[in-house]
Specification:
About 40% of the residues lie in helices and about 10% in strands. It starts with about 20 loop residues before the first helix and ends with a helix. About 10% of the residues have low confidence. Strand 1 and strand 2 form a beta hairpin. It has a single domain, classed as Jann2411-like fold (Orthogonal Bundle).
Length: about 210
């Protein structure tokens, strides 16, 4: 049995079995630094201090599952924090539009770019993160997403279909069909809301 991995941001919202493997777990943890849940949990990227606390803890976890994990950006300044927040929201938007959501014509799906180094040896070619500070983190994260795409696991990293939640989870179901971060809360809430909307539409369309 695989040992449980404690990702500090994701642990606030889900069970261990809903977290992504290896470096993809760090990507999920970044997404779950946002203020989510009910009652709402604090945004771990709200200030430089809280962001550094999260990074220290999350990167320590990452180092236990990936020997090539990037170092802590030090010092983290307000500009770097802003870039980290922007990356989080761009990734959330991209993942949300990847499983059923239709992006607004006025808000195109973001194109998140970075730089990387290619290393070639007898065992094959590898992408290595490049840059300093937050840019190195950005490079590492996008490399993890590229690797997950080729391994066909990227499709399992999802954002909850409940717009009031948007928690990131890893879908381990056989047919990769989960929509909800937590079916007993988010799923039921959305189903009740949809049912009420259908009733209202029926009432409006019924002749008096």
């Amino acid at each position: 049995m695989t040992a449980a991995v404690h990702w500090p941001a994701s642990a606030r919202y889900q069970q261990v079995q809903d977290t992504a493997p290896a470096g993809l777990g760090f990507v999920q943890d970044l997404l779950n630094t946002a203020s989510l849940g009910k009652p709402r949990q604090p945004d771990l990227l709200e200030t430089v201090v809280t962001a550094e606390e999260w990074l220290t803890s999350s990167l320590a976890t990452l180092s236990t599952v990936d020997s090539s994990s990037p170092p802590l950006p030090h010092p983290l300044d307000t500009r770097g924090l802003g870039r980290l927040r922007s990356l989080r929201e761009d990734l959330r938007t991209a993942l949300a539009t990847g499983h059923g959501d239709e992006p607004s014509p006025a808000v195109p799906v973001p194109s998140v770019q970075t730089t990387a180094t290619i290393s070639v040896d007898p065992s094959g070619a590898r992408l290595l993160p490049r840059g300093k500070g937050v840019e190195l983190l950005r490079s590492y994260i996008l490399i993890q997403l590229a690797a997950a795409t080729y391994a066909d696991t990227m499709r399992r990293l999802k954002v909850c279909a409940n717009p009031r939640c948007r928690g990131a989870f890893y879908d381990r179901s056989k047919n990769c069909s989960r929509l909800w971060h937590d079916v007993t809360t988010c799923g039921n809430t959305q189903n009740v809301r949809a049912y009420r909307a259908r009733l209202k539409e029926r009432e409006l369309s019924t002749p008096r």
